[in-house]
Amino acid sequence: MKLLHPFLRLCFTAFLFQILLMQHLSAQPSKTNDTWLIKLISIRSFGSIKTFDAPIDYSITKSKISYERRGKLNIVRFDLKKRWIIDKDKKTYTERVLGYQDTSKKVIPITKAGLEYEPDYYWEIKDLGRDSVINGWKCHLFVAFGDADYSDRTVYFWSTHDLPSNLEILNEKSFRDILPGTDVSDKLFEHIKPLNAGVVIYLKDFERPSIVRDPIILEYKVDKVEPLNKMDISFELPEGLKKLN
User: Fold this and answer.
1) Is 144 helix (H, G, I), strand (E, B) or coil?
2) Opening angle at CA 48, ends 72 and 50, nearest 5
3) Which of 91, 111, 161, 167 is the most buried (most CB within 10 A)?
4) SS3 for 61?
5) Looking at residues 46-68, what average pLDDT do you find?
6) Which CATH architecture has domain 36-243?
7) pLDDT at 2 over 70
8) How does pLDDT run across 14-34, given as a tens digit for each residue?
9) What is the pLDDT of residue 175?
């Protein structure tokens, strides 16, 4: 078999390189896309007990989130300040107002009610100056120290600028929905927001209540980010559902 002419061989090599480059770029999140499919993995640990939650797929835009968890469809509309929790089998839904705090239930001091105490953390955040690569994304490590009267909390989080900035809504999602304690996560998120840290893709939270020896540990990790076609997802409340509240 005759060898290819050097010019033809060069053209073939350039063509092959272009195909490989296009495949690589197509696998990366587009900076201009505004609708995403995010797969999150979460792990909870207490002492030697470790539980793995089923991975959750989040459909996310700048002001809307949709995901299924424990058999319920959740649609979060930051633009409307509403959350709909939908039971598709029973064709019912409940509606909650985002940011609403029920002041009718008073938190009893720990000296009177023990476990009813809800810590009010003072947060301090430090840049640890460490870089790492997680799932192919260059990340930077920060740590948040939370101090309260009867509890302390340490949250390590790795963030990246390799993902589009409109995915920073994932920070809001992770801190406000995944971390236990709405008040805790809201205050922590408000401290992280001014850092311009990018998108938080891995988080490890250590909570140490004074009444237990071992910390309660929560981990969550972004496992996958894919562009999503707007036509494939709806962030609207489906018709024909009965409102429960």
Assistant:
1) strand
2) 20
3) 167
4) coil
5) 84
6) Clam (2.50)
7) no
8) 555 455 444 444 445 555 577
9) 56
Token duo for residue 120: 């009010």
Q: How far apart (Å, rounded) are the C-alpha atoms in residues 211 and 192?
A: 28
Cβ atoms < 10 Å from Cβ of 28: 13
Name the E strands within 121-240. 122-134, 137-147, 151-160, 199-209, 216-227
Which one has a higher pLDDT value, 50 or 127? 127
CB atoms within 10 A of CB 232: 9
Query: Residue 29 contacts by C-beta under 8 Å, 6 or more apart in sequence?
Result: 36, 163, 164, 167, 225, 226, 227
Separation between Cα atoms, residue 78 and residue 65, nearest integer Å? 8
Q: DSSP state, 35?
A: -
Residue 238 phi, psi (nearest 5): -60, 150
Long-range contacts of 191-196 (CB under 8 A, 24+ apart): 191/123, 191/125, 191/144, 192/125, 192/142, 192/144, 192/157, 195/125, 195/127, 195/142
Q: Any idea where the domains of the chain sit in the sequence?
A: 36-243
| Mean pLDDT score of the chain | 76
Query: How is residue 143 written in tokens?
Result: 């740590």
Q: Which residues are within 8 A (CB) of 196 and not within 5 positions of it... i.e. 6 or more apart?
A: none
pLDDT score recorded for residue 18: 52
